[in-house]
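Following up on my earlier thread - several people asked me to post the actual chain instead of describing it. Fair enough. Here it is, all 145 residues.
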Amino acid sequence: MSVFKVLHIASSGLTAERLRQDTIANNIANAETTRSADGGPYRRQVPVFAPILDQRMHGARSPLQRGAQSKGVQVVGVVSDPSPPRMVYDPQHPDADADGYVAKPNIHVVKEMVDLITATRAYEANIAAVNSAKSMAQKALEIGR
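Reply from S.P.:
Thanks for posting it. Predicted structure:
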């Protein structure tokens, strides 16, 4: 695998993990938002990733049968978590229903923090891959001296 392919794959991972970190930060910032533009509480957002495949045609029908190789990762989109909102009893809240319950976002800050740590570690792993590829390229250039 060439150094440039490694750099391309790692950079796509860096981009994806950065979006994941931004989405998690947005979720944490809206953990108590009970009113959103579409009505109701804020809904947790989750990025969806998919591999970028290099599909080579060798008479096979599926990418796996063709010997597809990964060329990185791409962000397919950001979707709302379908889980129901948390119902919290707070009759003094302005958004409370007739029974005194408030629909809070379906966000658990501790889970978001764990996701943020894993996204940060994945980002750091991609940086390590970039640095390793850069170091190998530098050593290869030194051989010719």
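Residues 3-31+45-80+107-143 form one domain. That should answer part of your original question.
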